[in-house]
Design goal:
Number of helices: 4
Largest sheet: 6 strands, mixed
Strand order of the largest sheet: 2-1-6-5-4-3
Number of domains: 1
Strand content: 35-45%
Order of helices and strands: HHEEHEEEEH
CATH topology: Nuclear Transport Factor 2, Chain: A
Distance between the termini: 34 Å
Helix content: 25-40%
Number of strands: 6
Shape: globular
Structural class: alpha+beta
Low-confidence stretches: none
CATH architecture: Roll
Length: 143
């Protein structure tokens, strides 16, 4: 075991990763006040696939709160990036649909100041994409 102490930047990254995990836990448990506390007042959230941007922390939390109920999320992965951002992959079940969200979080210290999200729908590929046409190919359950 390496006893080298962590640098300030390494400790901050650990805290940022925990902030992202906590945010997803707050959203899943519908703890809107705690989620709001993780954002800077002027934080933004950009949904690139639909061309939408929430322009402050209240709007970010509100769009989650008013989203039609019935959804549940599971955090698949959270990683710190070398540029200080944190990347997460989250699976969202909202029957009959399933989604995957890739989110890139920007910070001021450990406060979230921006999120860029890229959403994809879990769906079967078109018939033309198959082992017969491609060769080295297989299907798997993405979640």
């Amino acid at each position: 075991m390496d006893d080298t102490p962590l640098t300030d930047a390494e400790e901050e990254m650990i805290d940022r990763i925990q902030t992202v995990r906590t945010l997803w836990e707050c959203f899943e448990s519908r703890n809107w006040a705690a989620a709001r506390g993780l954002f800077a007042h002027d934080a933004t959230l950009t949904w690139h696939a639909s061309g939408e941007r929430m322009l402050d922390a209240d709007a970010i939390v509100r769009v989650q709160r008013i989203y039609p109920e019935g959804w549940h999320l599971a955090v698949l992965e959270v990683n710190g990036l070398t540029d200080g951002r944190v990347h997460s992959i989250v699976a969202v079940d909202h029957p009959p649909n399933r989604f995957l969200a890739n989110s890139l979080f920007r910070f001021d210290g450990t406060t979230i100041v921006g999120v860029d999200e890229y959403w994809g729908t879990v769906e079967a590929p078109p018939e033309w994409r198959n082992a017969q046409a491609i060769g080295a190919y297989e299907r798997f359950d993405p979640l």
